[in-house]
């Protein structure tokens, strides 16, 4: 296949080509160059490419091109391993499908009431994105009608196998039309993926984008050897040495996540945790605040290793090294995205750490040592005091979302101009969810913004606004 150099050459519709241009996507990634033409040609594919390589757009654009909006019935299904990835794919689908007037994209996940999702399916949708358990439940109970589905995508299939969703996925596939198109995407390619592909994808085209030094070129990888020092002290020094606007810290255990979060919080650091023990509402809220940059440091288990896309994430820290070298790539791939540069620091006792050596062997690169001799004179109290700087933005939760036809422009209009009186520079990221919305507002303007929203109206309706995280 001849190498394509632009989205115009990928045979996308004029509407989708215009959208990618509007979004500033000038050149497709390697996985997009290979996968988009194959999917547009109706092929079954199995695509392997590292996290952060543009896989979502690689399947979202062909799926959107095949949607007949005038037919308000389910035409595409995307299966994701986690609720967070489901939400990320949903955001990307809506963003890329902005010129598809009337497009309905549903997110169907556990941890939320089933009835509203069932009602949405009954009203009609074009694309459903969801986790295996909830999708299977809706299919088995007859609330999801699969007969009209033309395309099914399994996103991060290796993660689904790791989480034990193999049986659920096969049961979901059994409900779908036999003449469907099936696309399977995976960051790694264990034996189970090959077996799954053989069972659900006749004559699948294999697309493999190898990880190269260039893929990691925008990430400066470092190792911090703490020796006999306190590990928390090493973490705080790593944070202080980089002075990030936002940092994501990975731990292997939920107990470690809680311990670190409590320690840093007591020290006055803007910090929160993200792990499997959080209820869905709290998980959504934490991630919204982190994406809004109103939480500077997020301590997380690998539940955040995939499906978490944060613009401008400066720093990733491996407080604990992952058990598998592949997971290291997923973790550090949260930074250095979309042409930006990032830093990844791994905290180890010494250079002979076997897991660290396995990672270096896997990536083919020697990770440089971060000299922290300057930290020897610093106490934990000193470092915590230096790090105790509040975030620039705060987050407001609004009790209205897509269900209420609320758009970003509606919220911005309610806060600025004659309606709200706030300066546009005080308003940051606005995130619209199904029934709720989050808006980032500068710390100086947060009180005025909350009052303005509670007194005023959005689209002629009153919604409750609350300051999150107080």
Can you walk through the features of this model?
- By secondary structure, the chain is of the alpha/beta class.
- It is 37% helix and 18% strand.
- The protein has helices spanning 14-22, 30-40, 55-66, 83-96, 114-123, 132-140, 157-162, 166-175, 191-200, 231-242, 254-266, 280-291, 325-332, 354-363, 380-387, 408-415, 417-420, 446-455, and strands at 45-48, 76-79, 105-108, 127-130, 151-154, 181-186, 205-208, 219-225, 247-250, 271-274, 297-300, 315-318, 342-348, 368-369, 393-398, 427-432, 437-442, 465-468.
- A hairpin with a 4-residue loop joins strand 16 (427-432) and strand 17 (437-442).
- It is globular and about 65 Å long.
- The mean pLDDT is 89.
């Amino acid at each position: 296949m001849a190498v394509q150099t632009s989205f115009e050459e990928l045979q996308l519709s004029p509407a989708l080509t215009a959208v990618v241009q509007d979004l500033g996507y000038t050149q497709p990634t390697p996985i997009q160059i290979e996968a988009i033409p194959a999917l547009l040609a109706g092929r079954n594919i199995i695509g392997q490419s590292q996290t952060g390589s543009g896989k979502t757009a690689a399947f979202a654009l062909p799926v959107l091109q095949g949607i007949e909006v005038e037919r308000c019935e389910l035409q595409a299904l995307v299966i994701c391993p986690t609720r967070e990835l489901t939400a990320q794919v949903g955001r990307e689908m809506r963003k890329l499908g902005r010129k598809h007037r009337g497009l309905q994209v549903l997110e169907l996940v556990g941890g939320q009431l089933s009835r509203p999702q069932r009602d949405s399916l009954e009203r009609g949708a074009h694309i459903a994105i969801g986790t295996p358990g909830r999708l299977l439940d809706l299919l088995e109970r007859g609330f999801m009608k699969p007969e009209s589905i033309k395309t099914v995508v399994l996103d991060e299939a290796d993660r689904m196998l790791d989480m034990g969703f193999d049986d659920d996925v096969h049961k979901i596939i059994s409900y779908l039309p036999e003449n469907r198109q099936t696309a399977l995407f995976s960051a790694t390619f264990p034996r189970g993926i090959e077996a799954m592909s053989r069972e659900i994808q006749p004559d699948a085209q294999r697309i493999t984008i190898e990880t190269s030094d260039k893929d990691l070129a925008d990430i400066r990888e470092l190792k911090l050897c703490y020796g006999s020092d306190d590990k928390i002290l090493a973490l705080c020094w790593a944070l202080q040495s980089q002075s990030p606007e936002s940092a994501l810290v990975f731990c292997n255990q939920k107990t470690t996540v809680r311990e670190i979060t409590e320690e840093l919080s007591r020290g006055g650091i803007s910090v929160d945790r993200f792990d499997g023990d959080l209820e869905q509402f709290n998980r959504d809220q934490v991630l919204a605040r982190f994406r809004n940059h109103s939480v500077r440091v997020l301590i997380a288990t690998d539940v955040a290793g995939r499906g978490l896309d944060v613009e401008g994430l400066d720093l990733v820290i491996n407080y604990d090294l992952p058990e598998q070298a592949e997971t290291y790539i997923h973790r550090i791939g949260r930074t250095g995205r979309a042409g930006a540069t990032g830093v990844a620091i791994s905290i180890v006792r010494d250079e002979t750490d076997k897991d660290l050596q396995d990672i270096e062997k896997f990536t083919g690169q020697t990770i440089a040592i971060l000299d922290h001799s300057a930290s020897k004179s610093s106490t934990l109290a000193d470092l915590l005091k230096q790090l105790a700087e509040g975030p620039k933005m705060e987050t407001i939760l609004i009790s209205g979302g897509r269900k209420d036809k609320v758009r970003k422009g509606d919220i911005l209009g309610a806060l600025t101009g004659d309606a709200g009186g706030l300066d546009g520079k005080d308003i940051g990221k606005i995130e619209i969810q199904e029934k709720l919305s989050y808006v980032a507002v500068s710390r100086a303007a947060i009180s005025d913004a909350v009052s303005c929203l509670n007194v005023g109206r959005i689209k002629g309706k009153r919604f409750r606004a609350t300051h999150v995280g107080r």
